[in-house]
Amino acid sequence: MTEQLPALQILITMLAAPVCVLVRHAKVSWAIAFGANVFAFWVAWQLLLQVQDTGAIRYALGGWAAPTGIEYYIDTVNAAIVMLVAGISSVVLLYAYSSVSKAIPKAKHYLFYAAWLLCVTGLMGIVITGDAFNVFVFLEVSSLATYMLISFGDDRRALTASFRYLILGSVGASFILIGIGFLYAATGTLNMIDLAERIPDSQSQRAVLVAFSFITIGVLIKAAVFPLHAWLPNAYTYAPVAVTAFLAGTATKVSLYVLLRFFFSVFGEDYSFGQLFLNGILLPAAIGGFLLMSLVAVFQTDLRRMLAYSSVAQIGYIVAGFSMASQAGLAAGIVHIVNHALIKASLFMAVGCIIYRVGHAHIPSLDNLFKRMPFTCVAFMLSGAGLIGIPLTVGFVSKFTLIGAAMDEGWWLLAALILISSLLAVIYIGRVVEIMLFRQSREGGQASTGMAEAPLSMLIPMYALVIVALYFGIYGSETLGVANEAALQLLGGFK
Amino acid sequence: MTQLIGLYSYWVVIVLMMAGLYIMIARYNLVKKVIGLGLFQTSIFYLYITMGKVEGGTAPILVEGKELVYSNPLPHVLILTAIVVGVATSAVALALIVRIHETYGSIEEDEIKDIEAMEPDA
User: In the CATH scheme, what architecture does the domain B2-56+68-118 have?
Assistant: First the structure.
């Protein structure tokens, strides 16, 4: 059984989706979706243990060996990311039960959960596959499901947000498709390991260069790296909050993983960063992202939109780590992928609790919310502290390693800019906390209505993520150890 | 010059691709945007098929006792998948446009923007 785990990882959630559509029952389809996700999480965990034990796994799908068939390639990097995706998805699904039952008409629930399952399948597929064309197929599976999930939002602007994402996302995916086509033309293979071997000796280096550019731009769009993030703020603001929590923790992170895989494993570090001077593009994008987007976040009046801009900023930190192309920088980027996924998912879950009770997320009207929803506010503050990077939180672990890596490179200016952008995070999180805690409510404000917490079924999953994040904040060496191992494997190429 | 004419297939790809991209950027009508996207994706299908073509090649079917020159079938198979994806994308896009038309009463992007500008912050 254990040797079939890579296939099970994808199949269970994929097959559960049509089952959800067939049963047409809100609660049953939720249970199916949740069960499938927990199973996928268990499989990913087993895979991570196995990979750490025996090294990278090469799994021939359907028994067809590599050049003919599609191969799944699993090492520490993608086993960890698959586990993150399945884990976040399971926790947010648990949370979604109450949140979604209020936000979406009951007759549509089974379709919602089916789309969710397809989205998870696509995301895990992108990460686990070792075949370049398969990346595109899974990317489209997850993207199409994402467009559907976003359009479930109760505001009508969710529809236009979804449409805008559809156009931009399809252009991004098409760019990746063009790039893969050129790679195939230059090397005659689609298998990532064979690609990595043949690219340096290819007769048509110009085709390889074109492929590299198209894939880079395509993935940067999907990952919402500044300045290609135009689709993200509206999509995150108007989608159902459970979907936003899920997407913020997984979708952009998976695209960042694709970036890593292509830059370091397929094209190789020498090609991407040595010959092409890729950090000349990535570093300005990263710095522009975390400075400008943090600044924009300060001026938002909607909590969801503020966190959406903050997401683009945090993606900037991750890309800054990648652009160093050193082991420390990569490890910082990878560790922040995990840490930011935990922080942002729990923050959006807190926003979901607020919307559940208050009905909106308009920051100036959240005055004195602490009296009414103390548990939600505490969760928001703990995760917010993580976003800023206060010691003993996961954000501190990421920023500490990132700044350390920047100093190793001698990039003092970058280290200083990261600190400045952290100060901006203090402002935009602190502003919300100040309103929640101290601002006196106007007459008839929140305080007069007494305490009204969100239901336990929403609080428990939210606190589960907050506690996991706290744990990794205090015992940062555990995630850092995996990230360091992953960085070493990426720099070492395929074995 | 022979290169220009000999590779005319690639010129078709470039023209189609740029036309599709231009429509997506320049047109406000959402249906036209989807048409542009379709054109853009079709140009990629054409790129793949051109890539697999071998001069004088036929269908890749084994014939006993004969050495056949055949076109590379793999790009064809890949593009079958990509066509399915393209159809699904258009279907989702058109479904969204139907819903947008129901709720906004318009499928012109500039008109929708005006309507959205009047709505409160969220």
Answer: Orthogonal Bundle (1.10)
In this predicted structure, what is the pLDDT of residue A358? Answer: 85
* Minimal CA separation from A158 to chain B, in Å: 10
Residue numbers in B near A171 (CB within 8 A): 21, 24, 37, 40
**Is A39 inside any structural domain?**
no
Helices (H) and strands (E) in chain A, counts: 20, 2
User: What angle do helix axes A26-54 and A5-23 make, rounded to 10 degrees?
Assistant: 180
Provide the 10 A C-beta neighbour count for residue B87.
Answer: 12
Say which DSSP state A362 is in. B
- How near does any CA of chain B get to the CA of A119, in Å? 14
Alpha carbon of B87: minimum distance to chain A alpha carbons (Å): 11
Full residue range of the structural domain in which residue A385 is found:
277-495
Residue of B78, B88, B116 lying closest to A133 (CB–CB): B78
CA distance A28 to A17: 12
A398 pLDDT more than 80: yes
Question: Where are chain B's structural domains?
Answer: 2-56+68-118
Q: What is the reported pTM?
A: 0.92
Please return the burial class of B105, using the count of CB atoms within 10 Å of its CB with bins 0-12, 13-18 and 19+.
exposed
First to last CA, chain B: 58
Q: Are A158 and A112 in contact (CB under 8 A)?
A: no
Q: Does residue A255 belong to any structural domain of this protein?
A: no
> Which chain A positions have a beta carbon within 8 Å of B78's beta carbon?
133
Contact present, A394 and A333 (Cβ < 8 Å):
no
> Comparing A125-129, A407-411, B86-90, which segment has the lowest mean pLDDT?
A407-411
Percent of chain A with pLDDT over 90: 55
Residue A139: closest C-alpha in chain B: B85
Query: Does A316 reside within a domain?
Result: yes
- Token digits of residue A193: 């390991």
Q: Chain B contacts of A162, Cβ < 8 Å?
A: 96
Q: Quick check: B75 and A181 CB within 8 A?
A: yes
Tell me if the bond preceding B120 is cis, omega within 30° of 0: no
Is residue A443 scored above 60 in pLDDT? no
Residue A266 lies in a domain: no
A456-489 residues labelled b (16+ CB within 10 A) or e (exposed): eebbebbbbbbebbbebbeebeebbebbbbbbeb
Interface contacts A/B by beta carbons within 8 Å: 77
Report the 10 Å Cβ neighbour count for A64.
11
pLDDT band at A438 (very low <50, low <70, confident <90, very high): confident
- Say what the pLDDT of residue B2 is: 67
Nearest neighbour of A301 by CB, restricted to B89, B99, B121: B121
Q: Structural domain tally of chain A? A: 1
Residue in B with minimal Cα distance to A67: B74
Query: pLDDT (tens digit, 9 = 90+) per residue, A204-260?
Result: 888 899 999 999 999 999 999 988 999 999 999 999 999 999 999 899 999 999 999
Task: Give A275's DSSP letter.
Answer: I
Highest averaged pLDDT of the listed ranges A60-69, A366-375, A378-387: A378-387
When pLDDT is cut at 50, 70 and 90, the band that residue A310 belongs to is: very high
